[in-house]
Amino acid sequence: MNTMTLGTTSLANDISLPRQARIILAHLESGKQITNSKAMLVYHISRLSDCILKIRRAGHDVRTDIRTDEVGGKYASYYLVPKWSEEHMGFKWSEEDMGFPGFY
Question: Which pTM was predicted?
Answer without folding.
Answer: 0.69
